Structure to design on (272 residues):
């Protein structure tokens, strides 16, 4: 608790303090009150960054959790060695540094990269484009990288949860004539309530605080099409020397994370 107070709560308290000042990090800080917070919600560019973070929730959380449930269910039906092999392959992105993953995916998304080459090879060359330079598709392209990274975590979490479900429940469902889909919704999903809560929490936080992949792949571009709060805080603080504005954006981001995660946790866990 002492280390947590020094390494987490202390810096957070300083961020809250800095957010009420106009300060370049070196000179004299000038008190501006709530002006930095007003800018966060009044400046369209700041609001766009927050909106992009919420758009990433679909890729980081919704797709990752859904595909993780599907992958865990399918791998569970395989023989033990094949199941472990499949889970290991899916989990590999978790051990790859996100900076390296961002660089690799930048190559894949390049104009002459593997993604466009694959599209041309199957006769879909009309869909090929410079993905990370496209104002419409740059953010979804980054979102899919997030899905790729997190699906392995969700799969392993759900697989571990399924191993704790009483096999007698599956036998009872089979005797009652329940098919695979009915069994999944009647037995598997309720048995994974706690695991789903953890997965949703972790993936939501990852979406809202995304930084590494966006910074490496696009730096928030083209324009500000992929700008997210994490990158915006970095640019405000270190590139523009606006420590107060960056701190205010960081505090707002933390509050948004709490406002989104806590209610969802309570709903998923069935608490009122």
């Amino acid at each position: 608790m002492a280390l947590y107070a020094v390494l987490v709560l202390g810096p957070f308290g300083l961020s809250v303090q800095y957010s009420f000042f106009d300060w370049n990090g070196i000179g004299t800080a000038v008190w501006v009150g709530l002006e930095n917070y007003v800018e966060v919600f009044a400046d369209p560019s700041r609001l766009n960054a927050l909106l992009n973070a919420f758009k990433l929730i679909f890729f980081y959380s919704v797709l990752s959790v859904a595909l993780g449930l599907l992958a865990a269910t399918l791998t569970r039906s395989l023989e033990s060695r094949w199941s472990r092999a499949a889970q290991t392959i899916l989990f590999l992105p978790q051990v790859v540094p996100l900076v390296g993953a961002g660089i690799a995916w930048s190559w894949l998304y390049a104009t002459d990269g593997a993604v466009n080459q694959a599209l041309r090879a199957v006769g879909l060359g009309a869909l090929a484009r410079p993905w990370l330079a496209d104002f419409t598709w740059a953010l979804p392209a980054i979102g899919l990288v997030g899905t790729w990274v997190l699906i392995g975590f969700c799969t392993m979490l759900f697989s571990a949860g399924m191993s704790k479900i009483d096999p007698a429940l599956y036998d009872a469902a089979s005797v009652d004539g329940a098919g695979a889909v009915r069994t999944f919704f009647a037995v598997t999903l309720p048995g994974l309530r706690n695991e789903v809560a953890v997965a949703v929490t972790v993936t939501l936080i990852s979406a809202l605080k995304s930084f590494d992949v966006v910074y490496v792949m696009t730096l928030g571009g083209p324009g500000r099409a992929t700008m997210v709060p994490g990158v915006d805080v970095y640019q405000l603080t270190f590139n523009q020397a606006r420590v107060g504005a960056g701190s205010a954006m960081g505090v707002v981001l933390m509050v948004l994370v709490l406002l989104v995660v806590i209610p969802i946790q309570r709903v998923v866990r069935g608490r009122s």
Observations:
- The chain has one domain: 2-268.
- The chain has a mean pLDDT of 91.
- The CA atoms of residues 6 and 12 lie 10 Å apart.
